[in-house]
Amino acid sequence: MARGPATDLAVRNQTIQQHQNVIFQRQIGRTFRLAQCTVCSIIKRFTITGNSRPGKAPDRKPTLTDREVRLFRRHIRKNRHMAVADIVTWARQSFGNVISEASTRRYIKRCGYAFYKARRKSFLTSSDKLRRVAWAKCHLSWTPSQWKKVLWTDESIFEVPFGNIGRKVIRKKDGANDPSYYKRLVYKASSVMVWGCLAANGVGNLNFCAGTIKALDYIRALEVNLRPSVQRLFDRKRYIFQQDDAKSHTAKITQIWLRTKRVSVLE
Fold first, then answer.
1. Three-state SS for 230?
2. Fewest 10 Å CB contacts: which of 24, 136, 197, 236?
3. Sign of the C-alpha dihedral, residues 228, 232, 236, 239?
4. Residue ranges of the domains in the chain?
5. pLDDT tens per residue across span 35-82
6. What one-character DSSP code corresponds to residue 265?
7. CATH class of residue range 126-164+184-261
8. pLDDT for 94-109, tens place per residue?
């Protein structure tokens, strides 16, 4: 049973004084509204230690032993992307005792780890990064009015995740850039490819594509969505078309189509 708050110091001292004046414990309890066992404990503590100060409460027995803590630390070090519920299940099966989710989180923190959002691995190579820096330096002097003429376009894959894909990772505070802590990829997940565009004053059309966009698919998407988007965003003003260096964008047939339609492309 949990121990209640300690009796007030003045009451303890008066209890000792009453005891020294040979007053019965039951009468002392009635006087100060204390249980007889409390009076007895105060007197016994004074007789043994010479003061009425209460002793330290006994420490709570830890859920895991030192050996189990070492096994726990080894397990989370090898399973960085494991969810808390799975760690709780593993601990209960491995150690044979009931451990709560809150205790599991405390032991993770005690081992020097914590849950962080997993970073996504960059798909840019060193040459990609160099080309992007060079492009940024070439357009460093552009004015805001020039950027407002740009129609930005891109494709993106939207996946429908399932199962434990490792959104969270167990790591130490200084381990954010370790590749083993990056977000894990799920192959063959349900996904859809979307082409879209935007400018400084709004967004253009969205085009949903089935599977990977090839050059012919890209041209069909432009034929259907480019003109309506340009009319809505730029009216009859001149604009600059932006696209990245994806294979479907740099294909010869795509370049011919852009020249035929007299589309000014941002280099």
1. helix
2. 236
3. negative
4. 9-49, 66-112, 126-164+184-261
5. 888 888 888 888 888 777 776 666 678 888 999 999 999 998 888 888
6. B
7. alpha beta
8. 998 889 999 999 999 8
